[in-house]
Each structure stands twice: as structure tokens, then as C-alpha cells.
Protein 1
Amino acid sequence: MLPFVNIVQHFNFPNMASIKLILRKHQVNKAGDCPLYIRIIKDRKPKFISLGIKLKENEWDDEKKRVKKNHANSARLNAFIAQKVADAEGQVADLERKVKTVSAKKLKEAIKGKGTPNFFEYAYKRCEKIRGSVSVSTYKSYTQCLKKFETYLGTKDVYFDDITVSVLKDYMSYMVNELNNSLTTQHHSIMILSVMFKEAIKDDSIPDSMNPISKLTLKKNKSKRTFLTKEQISALADYPFKEGSPAELAKDIFLFSVYAGGLRFGDVIGLQYKHFFREEAKIKKTINKTLNRTTAELQFKIGEVSLAIIEKYKKENTDPDDFIFPIIKNKELYLKDKEHRQKEKENASSSINHQLNRIGKKLELPFNLSFHISRHTFATNVLNNGMRIEYVSRLMGHTNIKTTQIYAKILNEELDKAVDDFVY
């Protein structure tokens, strides 16, 4: 074992942490005892770790960093202190080898035994912390992705610094070869892990350099925005459905979204008559934006087709709190219970999309018809009709106009294809 003086000198290299034993004489108590600390200095920032030892000033040799023999337990205390300094040396050396940039705070935590946190403990706690501020589906998505990663690793005893680029590449291979996950699913799974790393960096639990995902190159399927042309919209609107049938309801809420700003499914089925202002032909409602966990207060005019659909479902003595579309079975529970609301949305979405898929086959559409295509249809058609892209972005609740620009790109591609087909 190195003597104390050599231990201290060993840590005095440039850019490395220095460790020194300090008797804090300014903290002397009434009995004349002063606390003994290990002091860590990194980037000129000191942190102190108490050794739980108190000595009188004349019992401490500051030059040799030892308890003097005039103390009754000097031999035992010096052995204890030597072990603590050696442990500190090892912890600091390990952490500085693993992490290029590490703060004095992190060194202190490592020496005290905190070190790099357990990834799964941190991640699951983070999920519980945000549970009330995100949708039920978002919470489920986070926890399911974490559980999938845990299943792959076969243990929860994994720390942030155990998750390397190599580990993640092997995990991605596992998702492809064993789970048959698509590129989109792989990307989503890795992005959930990335969220946890970013949150841990943000609250200073780990350094930025410990994030392996920043070193990964992630592939993603090129997204294809399918939409109905004006002719296909007309064919859908004119198709003879049985009055009051599930198919007619599916068609109506699809067309409603097409002519009402491309509203999301959850926002459409949650529309109440109090959100509809007939004189202004407007919808005024808080719109949910699931991806960034926020909401937006929107009001916008809706087209004649949407107005006619609302009137079609309006009954006598309608209450302002009644839902416009007859989909929600238990209004009170839907409005009060978040988990029940999510379950109803999922069930309704499955039912409506089943009907739309059948309708699409009857219309001989070259793709599977689903409700979300109504959003794409709204965007591409209003852009084609000359609406400014900023307005489209606002109506659709996009937080980044680049998302809306995808639809403009689709129109350009369609135009290029038309020129190739009919001009050359």
C-alpha cells in the first residue's frame, strides 16, 4: 500500500482529480474535536467526504496525514483511514478511466458508494414519475420497451455505463432476428432508451459522455403518407351504406376528419356539442398532442360536409356535454377515468379501422384504409388547393413545420409522377 503522502501526490497530475485528507479545524466543536474529511478536487471544484472521525488538532499530523500516537486508537484509526483513501483511489481511477469528463460531484458519489445508477431502477422510477402527465398509451409504450430490453439482457442488475454501443448493436440484431421487429419498431425501442439517458444526463445522474445512443447510427423505414384523392373521397362519400350501420359511422367520422382539420381519432370521438359553434361553423377544443405530452387550444372553421355530419347525428334535447358521435358507451367514466378513456379509445379505434378496412376493399383502394389516413388526406388536399403550409401545420397541431412539409413533398412527388406518366 502506498503511504499517505504518495497517495496524495499520485492524484496531483494535471486534469486528474486530487485527493487529500483534511482536518477541518474551523468546524471544531465544544469539546475541541475537528472532523476529518477526504477532499476531492476536480477542475478546481472541491467536494468533501466525511470519514466519521473527529480529532483534536494536536492529535493530527498534517504533514504526514496520520493520526499521532498520542491518540489512544491511533493504529486502528490509521489503518481505517488508509483503507478509505485506497478505496477512494480505486473508485476515482475506475471512473476516470470509464468516463472522459467526470465532475467532482460524481467522484464523490462514486467514493460514497452511489456511483453510476442502475439503469432499470432509474428508468422505471422515471416512468412512474411521468405517468400522470402522459397518455396511458405513452406510459405503456415506455414500460413495454424497457421490459423488452430487460428481457433481452436477462437481468435488472444493469448500470448506465454497462450499456455500450456494442450492447445496443447486439440488441438491435436480436430485435431483427428473434423478434422480427421492423426498422420503425427498432428505432422506437432505442429512442425510449435514449429518453432515459437524456433524462439522467439532465438531472446530473450521469455525464453526457456516457450516452452510447449518440454514437449509434439508426436506420428508419422511409415513411409513406397514404391519402385519398378527390375522386376516392367522392367514391367513399357516395357508397351506399346501410343507415345506422357500423360501416356508415366509420365512413362519417373519417369524412368528418377530412373536412375538419384532420382531427386525430381521440379528438374526434371526444367531441362534445359544447365544442361546436353552429353560427360560426367552428370547433373550439383543447387538442391533445401525444408525442410531446402537451395540449393546444384550437378553434377553426369546418367544412360543409363536416357540418352536415354533425347535424345528422344530432338528437332532440341534446345536452352540451353529449358526444357528437355515438361511440362512447359511458360518458361519465370516459371523462373521469384516464385509463378507462384510453381503453375505450383503443377499442373504438380497432372497431372503426376494421370497418374502414372492409370499406377500402369494397372501393378497391390500392392500400388498407384506416382512420389515420384521414389526416394525410386533409393535409395533401388543402395544400393542393393552395392553403399556406403554416396554416395546415397549425390546424394539424404539428409542433414542427418540417412534419407538415412531408405532405408538400408528397404532392411534388405526385406531380413529378404525373409529368412522367402523361408528358413523356
Note: The first strand starts at residue 18 and ends at 23.
Protein 2
Amino acid sequence: MDPITEKPRRRRADAERNVAAIVAAARDLLCGGTLPSMGEVAVAAGVGRVTLYAHFASREALLDAVVRKVMAETDEALTGLRLDDDPPRVALDRLVHTSWQILDRHRTVRSVTLAELGPEALREQHDRVARHVERLIARGQADGVFRADLPGPWLVASFYATVHAAADEVSGGRLDAEVAPDVLGATLQSILQGD
């Protein structure tokens, strides 16, 4: 073992573990319904404040990293659904239920991101997972299952507006999280099929 090359490698590995722990701790605290201070994140991650600030100079930078991680995991989960293997209506139902589980867990992350970073920052990250919805709607339109009298991008925007409205209703106590996927599914089928 070469001690000269081994030290930087070990520092990089330590830094990567620290970053992963910090992002995971911040996400867990947010998912628990709180907006944590940087100090609370450091304690939950098991790192010092100096280490935290060495990786994330501000709460905004940390929140951006949390959103990026959530979106990467969401993209992976939706890719794993293999939606192209199902007829569009079946795929839509699976997409809605999986998307809802992810969004329901991360409702506080979404609301804090909107408040702290603004809708544009969230949208930039959201585009990563939108391709799943775009592809499904385009396939449904091509198959004659989903309405073709409205542009695909509008239907994609309607999909997300409806899903986010459901999250807001659950957060406001006006919709039960347990029934939200079924309500969403029925609403989105109606929007996309023109019923």
C-alpha cells in the first residue's frame, strides 16, 4: 500500500460517506415534518458543524442536494416500474400509486423546497422524472387510449398539477393520504381519457 496515494483516497471516501450521511439526515428530518437547523442536521448525521459547512455552505445548498437525491431515487423507482410493458391505462395506475407513495413520504421536502428555493428550482429537478409521464402520455395518445385533442405537454402539466394538488390537500387535512392514490387515479384517468 502506497501511503501517499492511499490518504487522498481515504479522505475522498470519508467525504463521500459524510455527504451521504448529511443528505440522508436532512431528508429524514424533513420527512418527519420539521424544517431542521443546520446544527440539527449535523447532530443527526453524526458530523461536526465544520464538516457540514465544508460540504454545504448554506441550508439552500443542502436542500438542493436533498431534492437531487429524492429525484434520483424517484427516477430509479419509476424506471423500475417498466411502464412500457403495460397498456397505458394499467401503466398510469401503477405510475400514480408509486408516485403517490414517493410524494407522500416527501411532502415536507416539496413544501420546504417551494418556500426556500422557489418553484423554478423544484421544476429544474422535476424534469428528470417527468420523462416517465411524458412517454406514457405520448404512448397513450398514439394508441388512441388518451385524448389527442389536447397537447401532450399540457396533459403532463395537468398530471403534475393534480398530483401536487392532492399532496396539498393531504397536508391541509382535507384528503386522507390512504385514499389519495385512488382519488388521483380516477381523476387522472378522467383528465387523460376525456371522460
Note: The mean pLDDT is 91.
Protein 3
Amino acid sequence: MDLLAVVATGVWAMLPAYVPNNAAVLAGGGRPIDGGRTLGDARLLGDGKTWRGTLAGTLAGTALALALSAVAPAVSDLLGLPLPSFPLPAGVGLALGAMLGDIGASFLKRRSGRERGAAFPGLDQLDFVVGALACAFLFAPGWAGETFTLPVVAAVLVVTPLLHVGTNAIAYALGLKDEPW
């Protein structure tokens, strides 16, 4: 597989994981997952991690996976690259895993004394990737093993932080985010 195909496969396969946190922000609010509980003197997760946002993000990512599956053959033909379709367990795994990765990062941020929205370089860009890949391999091991080969994972680990920083800078410039990270 050439470099373009590896990068295209990585970005395509991760799209259901790229969308959930954005959907969660749009649909968020409501009851915090941690119910206001603390560990020591800090919240477990904080007000930014809600049940509604987690559900909305998971549903959005799963719906995107199903939509991508429907158009994968046509897009593959158009680009001349073989792009994967998503079995339902893979779509759910990527979307839910992205949300769980972000929730885990929130927990680590609180433990390190960082406030909600504070930067945590590296973790901020890859938390959802780790969660998405872990759940994809758990929910759809055959599909994940065929799709996320070592070169594809390497491409995801390089491209995702660039996409993350770029899209966050744009959202900040448009006034959609309070921080540029």
C-alpha cells in the first residue's frame, strides 16, 4: 500500500472517532457523568463530561460509520483507493472508544491538577485515538486488525494531531471554542 493509500485509509477509518467529541460539545450539557463526585480535592471528571454528550457523540460517530459504509464503494472507485466499510460493532467501537478516551483524559487532567479546558499536549490530541482503537479491536477484532495495520496506525498517530490542532485553531478563530487547543 502506498503512502497516499495508507493515509487515506487511516483518516477514513478514523472519521467515526473524529466526530464524537464535536457532537458531544454541540449536544452536551445535562447531568455530569461523575455526579459531582470528587477524588481528593478535585472532581473525578468535571461538568464537561455528561451522559447526554457521551450518548450524542457515540450516536453521531456510529451514524457516520454507517453513512461512510454506504458510500465507501463509490468513494473508493472515485479515488482509486480501497477504503473500508464499517460493520456496526466497529462503528460503535470507534465512536464509543473516542468518547471513553476523552473521558479518561479528563480523569488524568483532574489528577494532574489541570482545570477544565487546560492544555495537556499529547494527551489532548491522542486520547480519543487510543480509546477508539482499543474499543475497535475489542468490538470488531477482525475488522480492526485488517484495517489498522501498523502503517495505518502510524499514519493516524501523525495525521491526527495535525488535524486536531488545525481544526481547533479554526474553531477558536471562529469563536466556537474558548481555547485554541
Note: Residues 3-173 form one domain.
